[in-house]
TrEMBL record:
Assembly notes: Homodimer.
PANTHER family named in the record: ASPARTATE AMINOTRANSFERASE, ASPARTATE AMINOTRANSFERASE, MITOCHONDRIAL
Residue ranges annotated for the Aminotransferase class I/classII large domain, each copy included: 27-382
Source organism per UniProt: Sphingosinicella rhizophila
One Pfam family per UniProt: Aminotran_1_2
Keywords for the protein's UniProt record, in alphabetical order: Aminotransferase, Pyridoxal phosphate, Transferase
Statement: the UniProt record of this protein carries the keyword Metal-binding: no
InterPro entries: Aminotransferase_I/II_large, Asp_trans, PyrdxlP-dep_Trfase, PyrdxlP-dep_Trfase_major, PyrdxlP-dep_Trfase_small
GO MF term set: transaminase activity
Enzyme class: transferase
Enzyme Commission code: 2.6.1.-
Protein name: Amino acid aminotransferase
Cofactor(s) annotated in UniProt: pyridoxal 5'-phosphate
Coiled coil: none
Amino acid sequence: LFGGLEEQKPDALLALIGMCNADPRPEKIDVGVGVYRDSAGGTPILRAVKAAEKILLETQQTKTYLGSQGDAHYVELLRPIIFGDAGDQDRIVGVQTPGGCGALRLGADLIAKANPEARIFVGQPTWPNHMPLIECAGVKMVAHPYYDRDSRSITFDAMMDALNEARAGDLLLLHGCCHNPTGADLDLDQWKAVADLVARNGLVPFVDLAYQGLGNGLEPDAAGTRLVVEAAEQALVAHSCDKNFGVYRERTGSLFIKGRNRTEAGKVFGNLMSLARTMWSMPPDHGAAVVRIILDDAELRADWNTELQEMCARIRALRARLAAFDPRLAYIDGQNGMFSMLPLSKEAVVALRSEHGIYMADSGRFNVVGLSDESVDRFAAAVVEKL
Ligand code: PLP
Ligand code: TYF
């Protein structure tokens, strides 16, 4: 049965974890996979999460099934965080998913089921997992320009020209904030221009919002998402709490979909339930239960907000420090989230690994927050030498 299978390449980002762990040099710098790190280089569990886990352990009475929609109260608590008090809420349905990945995959499956001809326009570069998650559902991807690595800037005019080719019912994959892999987000005027195009041409935004709160704060990080969702007749939002609650391995996500009216939204919900049954039947509970407990408790929620703001501030401070090191790194301060992309050849990236023990993705993407007070200047000096 299995003899005919072809060898598969491992996930390049996850492979970096093993590569860095295997390096015995104490001065090595891990700026590979996108997890938050504190100044000591660790990814500790948030205080609010630990407290909520204790409550969950003590108060949970049953582990019986919740159903394919997962924890409905978790979904409802996220709704205002993502959409604010925007109108048309009764046209937006939401379900819990296994992480943002599950939301992307479920959304792609629904698109393929609803319209096998639908195309999804995807800016380049994008998160490498977008391709397998969306294409394996059978949705055709159309690549368009987004970011130029050498000039370190968004190619907005070229992007808008390319998006003019999209037909009514085609989808736009948009990074809600903290663009992965570049860190370069649209500004509000650019989001407005995209929202106008969406409204004018009947396009369907599919927003991937995996880092809300880690760019400029929960509200500003949702501003672009709200603009395009409000402008659109139909829209999808894949959300993740894995980064902003630091519960990565708990696989804590959700998918929200706006239909043309309540009836359509209800039909969408039923289809999401039936598609979820074909993949994971029901999402894992723990992460969503923890997030629900935190958001439902004023004190825990305030503490989570404090820690989220601390994470955000640490990322911003490291960006500012890199930018101040050399004019060629100045662009890093104007970007958001954990990632930035250096215009380095693959050879230079590999050389940084062997010469300095600096572990970043082959694309030149690095995780800003993998740096510490001790390593940031060392990193900057080594990188600038290769630019
Ligand atoms: N979207 C982007 C852009 C990401 O970087 C990630 C990271 O993992 C995800 C989605 C998926 O998040 P999750 O770990 O919740 O599946
Ligand atoms: O881009 C990153 O580093 C994060 C983490 O298959 C990640 O999004 C990386 C690879 C992967 C899943 C998550």
